[in-house]
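ingest -> validate -> predict -> emit
validate: passed (alphabet ok, no gaps, 305 aa)
predict: started
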Amino acid sequence: MNMPRIELLMCPPVHVKAHPIKREYNKYQREENQPSIAGAMGEWAELLRKVNRAGAKVHIIGPREGLGDMQFAANAMWGRGGDHVFVMSNHAPEHRRPERQHYASWLVDNGYSVLFLNPKDEEGEIFEDLFFAGQGMVVSTPNQYFIGHNPRTTLLAIDRIQKELHLSKEVVPLKLPDDGSFYDLDVVMHYSREADEILFYPGAFDKEGLWALEHARVSRITTVSRISSVMQYIEEEDSYNFTLNAPYIENVEIFPRRGPVSSLPKEIRELEKHGKHKNIEIATIHLPQHGKLGGGARCLIGFLT
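emit:
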């Protein structure tokens, strides 16, 4: 029997732009260090080729002028794609909030149901207690949902999501730093489905978070201890890429890295040995223009299944 194809949602970076932003939301964006739109489009197109080659079906949502972070589709929503139900994000950075209506409209037009976390009062929608940064804050394993919280995602939002989606797996909140150095969980944590293995950077977590990760219900737990293995500084491009910000498409795992697979940290390269069927394929992709916004490969992909 053929397995259903993985379906993704991606948005071309036609209007890519670094915004003035509070440092606790993302300290890597600087308004004076703008990415090249042509360069960002080239990076995005290369990622699109790689995920297509890996067997994914990719849907494209049209970009909107003025929404310079809309290409980071991982932040748009989160849910159980098999149920065709998604919880929409509530962005803490105000300039990203208009993205939600465009993503929600696309999902509804394509047969999905959407849920909104925030209620309304007499002055409008309430955001502050219910911030949620979408799939970027969630790492799913067969037995657990790890969900990060910090100024971009609140514990109250996590609690409401758990109730709204009637989640049956254990939900494990993980505290991330409040200074914007590691703003989403997927920049410091990667789950390999084929190896049933979690890789994470321990410097991003407090004592309780480290304990939870060390006791995760997976086959292997691996720390990537060198900061250069997690946050790759591209000096000549003046940009950051997070090596663990890596999507997996079936048995293909795509890690942000300037060099070839041989330049990846040993802990990542050894994933190939741990796969259930010994068929993990590791790839790299260089994303310096998106790095100027603090984003990597996983940030650019919204999973629909």
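The domain at 7-303 is CATH 3.75.10.10 (L-arginine/glycine Amidinotransferase; Chain A).
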